[in-house]
Amino acid sequence: MDSNRVVELDAASSHPERMEIRLWIVPRGPTALAADHDGQRLVVWSLLARSLTTLALAERSKSLALTSPSVVAKNPLAPELARGRDLFHSGDSS
């Protein structure tokens, strides 16, 4: 959640955690992923940024964020509470 990345790893490797295939940078706090039926797109929910990002997964496609709309809360947090939430979840000390 604190890396703002989605990483594709080689599951066939004996050490998949060392075999990075592709990397996408997404908005703050990615917490959920869903792939479409054909495996061509990946949708990423970023909790801290409150946004959805759609990534192209086709074999030859580059890392491409197709969309990244923000979701507006009905009762947004006060700025100091939002900052505290971000710090708690992201580990960002700045």
Describe the model:
This protein has 94 residues and is mostly beta strands. It has one domain. 13% of the residues lie in helices and 34% in strands. The protein is built from one helix and six strands, in the order E-E-E-E-E-E-H. Strands 3-4-5-6 form a four-stranded antiparallel beta sheet, with no helix packed on it. Strand 4 and strand 5 form a beta hairpin. The longest helix has 12 residues. The protein is flat. The protein starts with a strand and ends with a helix. The mean pLDDT is 80.
Output the keywords.
single chain, 94 residues, mainly beta, four-stranded antiparallel beta sheet, two-stranded antiparallel sheet, 1 helix, flat
Write the layout of secondary structure elements.
Elements: E1 5-9, E2 20-25, E3 30-35, E4 41-46, E5 51-56, E6 65-67, H1 79-90
Antiparallel strand pairs: 1-2, 3-4, 4-5, 5-6
Biggest sheet descriptor: 4 strands, antiparallel
Q: Topology as H/E string?
A: EEEEEEH
Total beta-strand segments:
6
Rg, rounded, reads 15 Å
Fraction of helical residues: 10-25%
Proportion of residues in β-strands: 25-35%
The structural class is mainly beta
Number of domains as seen in the coordinates: 1
Separation of termini? 16 Å
Provide a quick synopsis of the model.
Helices cover 13% and strands 34% of the residues.
